[in-house]
Amino acid sequence: MNEGLTNSLKDERTRLSLTQAELADRIGVSRKTINTVENGIFVPSTILALKLAAALDRRVEDLFRIVPGE
Amino acid sequence: MKSDIEKAEAEGRQRARIAMASAAAFLTTLGASTSEQRLVDHVRVAGWVAWSAILLIILAGGGGWTQTLGVRKLLNDEVTRENRQRSLAVGFWVAMGTAAVTFVVDHYKPFEGQEASRIIITFGIASALLWFGYLERRAHAA
Predict the structure, then answer these.
(1) Under an 8 A CB cutoff, do A41 and B82 touch?
(2) How far, CA to CA in Å, does B17 sit from each of A55, B39, B102?
(3) CB neighbours (10 Å) of residue B105?
(4) B3, CA 20 to 30 Å: which among B109, B117, B124, B131?
(5) Of B5, B82, B138, the CB nearest to A24
(6) CB distance from B135 to chain A under 8 Å?
(7) Which pTM was predicted?
(8) In chain A, whose CA is at the least distance from the CA of B71?
(9) pLDDT computed for residue B40 by the predictor
(10) Sign of torsion over alpha carbons A57, A59, A60, A64
(11) Count of CB contacts below 8 A, A vs B?
C-alpha cells in the first residue's frame, strides 16, 4: 500500500493573503520550495514543516495529511 | 533593488539552463578521439580534465559564488539539495552502466584505459547534470 502526503499550504497561505515569495521570505527558503511543497512535488523535512506551520499559525497536522493508498 | 528571494529565483533558473546546456556540450567531447599521442591530443585531454573538474564543482557546490551568502543559501535550499542527491545517484548508475558496456565492448574492440575512463566519466557527469537541470526546471515551473 502506497501512502501519499497532501497539504493545505496554498489554502492557508491565501487565507493570510500571502504570496509564495512572502511566505518563503518569512521562513528563509526560496519561492521554489514553497511552490514544490504546495504542488506535492517535494515532501518537506520536519524542520521545514514546523517552520511553515509556525509562519501560518497552524499545527503541522493541520497543514499536512497522509492519504492512504490503494 | 531585487530581494534575495528574487535573485535566488533568477539565478536558480539560469543555473538549471546552464546545467542542461553544459551537459549537452560536454557529451559532444566524446566525438573527439584521443587515441593518438600528438601534442594537440594532450592539450585536448587537459582541457577535458579541467572541464570535468569545473562541472563536478558546479554540481557539488551549486554555483552562485558571485552572490551573497544569503542568496547562496536560498539557491541551495532543501529542494535543491534533494535534487542534487537524486541527480548524483543517477550519475552514479549511468557511470556503472557505461562501465559495464565498455567492459563488454572491450572484448570486441579493445579500449585504452584512458579512453574508457573518459567515456565513463563523461556519461556519469553529463547524466547527473542533465537530471539536475531537469529537476530544477521542473521545480521552478511547478
Answers:
(1) no
(2) 32, 34, 30
(3) 13
(4) B131
(5) B5
(6) no
(7) 0.86
(8) A30
(9) 67
(10) negative
(11) 51
Contact between A28 and A60 (Cβ < 8 Å)? no
**Angle between the N-to-C axes of helices B39-61 and B78-105, in degrees from 0 to 180, rounded to the nearest 10:** 150
ipTM, interface predicted TM-score of the complex: 0.79
pLDDT of amino acid B36:
59
Dihedral pair phi/psi, residue A5, rounded to 5°: -120, 130
The CA distance from B111 to B117, in Å, is: 10
**In contact, B63 and B15? CB cutoff 8 Å:** yes
For the record, the C-alpha cell of A48 comes out as 521545514
Which chain B residue shows the shortest CA-CA distance from A25?
B5
> Is B120 buried (19+), middle (13-18) or exposed (0-12) by CB count in 10 A?
buried
Q: Is the Cβ of B115 closer than 8 Å to some Cβ of chain A?
A: no
Whole-number pLDDT of residue B117: 92
- Would you say the C-alpha torsion B39, B40, B44, B50 has a positive or negative sign? positive
SS3 B71: helix
